[in-house]
Design brief:
2 copies of one chain form a homodimer. With about 300 residues, chain A is of the alpha/beta class. Chain A folds into 2 domains: about 1-170, NAD(P)-binding Rossmann-like Domain (Rossmann fold, 3-Layer(aba) Sandwich), CATH 3.40.50.720; about 175-290, N-(1-d-carboxylethyl)-l-norvaline Dehydrogenase, domain 2 (Orthogonal Bundle). The first copy, chain A, has 12 helices and 12 strands. Chain A has an 8-stranded mixed β-sheet. In chain A, helix 6 (about 170-195) runs antiparallel to helix 8, helix 6 (about 170-195) packs across helix 9 and helix 11 runs antiparallel to helix 12 (about 280-290). At the A-B interface, helix 8, helix 10 and helix 12 of A face helix 8, helix 10 and helix 12 of B. Chains A, B: It is an enzyme of class 1 (oxidoreductase). Chains A, B: One of its GO terms (molecular function) is 2-dehydropantoate 2-reductase activity. Chains A, B: It comes from Bacillus zhangzhouensis.
């Protein structure tokens, strides 16, 4: 297939690198500099100590017609991308954002495009503008957002590398919700407390606070199987004990966090359902303060 | 009386200014610059639009023998002052720190001095090295820390200005505890959320979080009359709705907060009693992160 990948971050480069084995790839970046570098050097992927080089086209903006477009930008850049995509002829678009806030934007998006949603379960770290480290081998679970006609893309995407499986599922929303639940338990707390993931279960007070966030999120999402889900959250803290969460890394590096995609979505849903979520509201506001480094002036 | 006042902050200057009406005052400052300025210009106090000038001696360090020494430094400078005071001949010393952490230090202090504890209920703001604004007229409640012999100082201190009453009470510990309770409810939350005091009762989520801190603090302090105390906390938020708490101001101005004196004391007491105080532990750690601006590197 002819695949366009929008976004040159860790996930964009990872997708481009693996999918280039079977497909013709174009990476669309925001900065011309990065597009140039990808054209000149290809994309380097390091996995388990080995480095692979992939060839891809690269350009800025989004133009042309593809068999599949994959949108890998962070949620806070999504609206700009949707505006660009609105100008393109009808095509298939797969969205790989974290959190669930993008579902609300897609629901309100008046478009003829065929939309798909995917959940990335890989670990990846951008090393440079043309290099990515594949730090955790997982899968991408994906499905059709509105309609049912996914069969053609589905067959094409079945043929990917063993380290980069694309698993089709009608249950993508459940997958998204469980990932959101894990994220909202781990990300805000680790960022506010400045601790690694494992500390959330090593310290009884922090675990209690995580349980407060968990209870509120479970109630907003209307999830059953609370016991299984809590064990799942705890097991992720355990497995990733030595890791810094992405939100902690964003705060440390002075970048915008995925706060709106994760906590913001839950707060919107809570408000609509008139559920009080004090811990989530607190995390949201204090993360905002930390992000803006509002420590110099008042208002 | 010959009174020495240790510390040239808002409370130090306020005490010096009022007490100079009946007593011979020496202010001990950390910086020589400030001592010089007080000697040259006296102390200016502004209250309800009027400005009064007081004359006082001023010096650095602490030396000499006084009828009363008043220690007005913040808790995080107290240990240095105790070390200095240890070298002086036996005298009467009144401690005016916020929070309750200083009680633990004084209990462990091997000294022949006669110790008194006071609780400041004034509002005051340092305007310059020799000027203070008296923004809220209250009282100082004080009592003897260990022994009972306070009669002589008590009589002398009864003769203060109407705007600066010194009220003797055997119940000073209860007064201290109630002030600590208000502080631990309002200060950390306003600093972390970057909101004025009134917002804590205007927003249902924030009020819920304040109630969590309240419950934990009440349990650690073993206080009864929970309903009256909660109404008291809420009424303070209401009366000071437009104010920025001192902890918020400290964070905004990049200064060290009174975190250890307030939250730190409660955490120590909680640990000794094996009470879980997850919200207080969370506030303590996230304030520490905000104070240290640990947003650049990890560990």
């Amino acid at each position: 297939m002819k695949i366009g990948i929008i976004g040159g971050g860790a996930i964009g480069l990872l997708c481009a690198s693996y999918l280039s084995q079977q497909h013709d790839i174009t990476v669309f970046t925001r900065r011309n500099e990065q597009a140039k570098e990808i054209r000149a050097s290809g994309i380097e992927r390091t996995v388990r100590g080995e480095t692979f080089r992939a060839v891809a086209h690269a350009d800025t903006g989004v133009k042309g017609i593809f068999d599949l477009l994959i949108v890998t930008v962070k949620y806070h850049h999504l609206q700009d991308v949707l505006d660009e995509l609105s100008t393109l002829p009808r095509q298939r678009i797969l969205f790989l954002q974290n959190g669930m806030a993008h579902l609300l934007d897609l629901e309100n998006w008046k478009t003829a495009h065929q939309l798909y949603i995917g959940v990335v379960e890989h670990g990846a770290m951008k090393v440079s503008d043309h290099a990515v480290a594949h730090t955790g081998i997982g899968v991408i679970k994906w499905g059709a957002f509105h309609h049912k006609e996914a069969a053609d893309v589905r067959n094409e995407l079945n043929e990917t590398s063993a380290h980069f499986q694309m698993v089709y599922t009608d249950e993508w929303k459940k997958v998204l919700e469980e990932k959101l639940l894990v994220n909202v338990c781990i990300n805000p707390l680790t960022a506010l407390l400045h601790v690694k993931n494992g500390e959330l279960i090593a310290n009884a007070s922090y675990e209690y606070m995580m349980k407060c966030a968990f209870e509120e999120a479970v109630s907003v999402l209307g999830l059953s199987e609370k016991e299984r889900l809590w064990s799942h959250v705890v097991s992720i803290c355990d497995k990733t004990a030595a890791n810094q969460s992405s939100m902690l890394q964003d705060i440390v590096k002075g970048r915008q966090t995925e706060r709106k995609a994760i906590v913001g979505y839950l707060l919107k849903q809570a408000q609509a359902q008139e559920i009080l979520t004090p811990h989530l509201a607190f995390f949201n506001r204090s993360l905002e303060v930390l992000e803006k480094k509002q420590t110099k002036s008042f208002e």
